């Protein structure tokens, strides 16, 4: 078993090898395309057959993510397995890891799936600054926690939140009951409100040999809790975000690309908001910056290849195409200097990420 | 019928539409990847199921290129049809064009499939300089032709030549019989030898609205008759190659990307060597130059979209990975500033194009 693990740990995938990707959304799609460039084959595991990644991958297995047997069989057909979303069930991750190198590993999932575990890991184990937080399992806990953290604050479910889903801002004591009603009975975490100056993120990678490569700091603007633009390199980068990302990658013995989101104060202080153990929307600009893009970087790490360049040749601003934005595809295609990336989603819904554009700045 | 043709002529493919690609090699593969970026779906028609493009396309139809019925059925399932190689049989092209817009059209195939038709078109119809040439159908023709064109000269089959296949250099009269034996009974063309200073090419595109966009002149170096490197922008470009490419595109009422190869004399004079009605190996550098790459450009044209930028942000040199070159994939991956593109071919053969690398210069 020990030698099997060692083999897993060090396995390098030659061209022609198969990478399994748990999840078939746009991130899986762009990972599959990057893998094809390196002569690697992708096998997608998705809940639906007509997912965005299915159109560009060699093979698709349709199954539930908690179908441990199916995930195991899928992983046995792959030379390495990765994922495009952090909510892979723990038992499925364990099954995958027993059959093939799972990169990043299960520990990254454990930490990032649960906001309480994540904040504890970042603050207690790494000594990084995070927003004040309190464990909330009952409305009484919530009242006590609001007193400690002060108003305003944000109640969030510990699990399965994204794009502003699973969270409520509490601005007055009178809103406590309604906030709890909205999210209960899910285990929650109350977070102090961070009066940030701007939001920034770092996308960084770690290889199987421990090599770390970070892209430059990226400045993000959200609209309605959904990422609107990411611009890189961000002004005023003192390198501390990249250092923190490096610490996180080391501590998790991580292999692959990770996104780390920060709140930044006017004095430059960085508070870690959350980590995503996968390629990250704020790293899409890397596709048109002249360096190795984050999707290829992740595939390189997962395949055990050397990491690629992370220095852009010029600045880039990425703008997400949300919902009806995509209807302007023809206008965007006609716009000079605009690189379009569409995800092949046929159904347009409000708030749905349909594509993005990258523009040189 | 007239209105159907007009509909064909002007049809614009919205994201989610299906582009059929005749041919499943590396060009089809990179076209499929580019299409996916634009939210377009690809359906490959290939003689083999395990072709390079099959791994990244949504659907593959396996069939012979001269199976007119099968090509027709395939084309009926597509919103537009294109091809990655010039030897699509005329009847199959006609069948495809009856079912969907065929871009580029059948005329481009007619002209480029036959070296005699090609040279006649370029010289007689467009007045462009080509190497002296003579139609050769018999060893007697060949003797006469050698007298007219002088030695050395090159005997080529009119059809199906590529990468130096189907051609013999004749340096002495004593070699005439052997040259003929080697290629007979295929209809041939004898071409005068052009004592060129360098080989250059232009990749240019034309949209459904007649818009033309050319990439900068590219300088090519061949080894053993196979393209070794392409470097762009080439030094000393007076724009005449792009102008000639534009004339060719106009005259053929062409839609899509075309490659035009030239011999250049020391005084700058350009002789057209051949045209390729498809994306071209000497345009692979466009993938890592910051502009729209030739594969996306071709897909844009085929889909009836506006053409993209053709101005590189910096110089690039492309080097083909031929045969065993690909075994150094790990060394190449570790090399800074090197973008690797592998074609997913499992069998390595001498002279086989396995991939390429692009490097900023």
Question: Could you explain how this protein is built, in words?
Answer:
The structure is a homodimer of 361-residue chains. Chain A has helices at 2-10, 26-37, 68-76, 90-99, 106-113, 115-125, 139-149, 176-183, 240-251, 294-302, 329-333; strands at 18-22, 41-46, 59-62, 80-83, 133-136, 153-157, 167-170, 188-192, 198-206, 212-214, 218-223, 226-232, 256-264, 270-276, 316-322, 338-342, 353-360. Chain A is of the alpha+beta class. In chain A, strands 9, 10, 11, 12, 13, 14, 15, 16 and 17 form a 9-stranded antiparallel sheet that branches. In chain A, helix 3 runs parallel beside helix 4. Chain A is globular and about 60 Å long. The A-B interface holds A 12, 14-16, 29, 32-33, 36-39, 41, 54-58, 288, 290, 292, 300, 305-306, 308-309, 313-314, 326, 329-330, 333-334, 336-337, 339-344, 346, 355, 360 and B 12, 14-16, 29, 32-33, 36-39, 41, 54-58, 288, 290, 292, 300, 305-306, 308-309, 313-314, 326, 329-330, 333-334, 336-337, 339-344, 346, 355, 360.
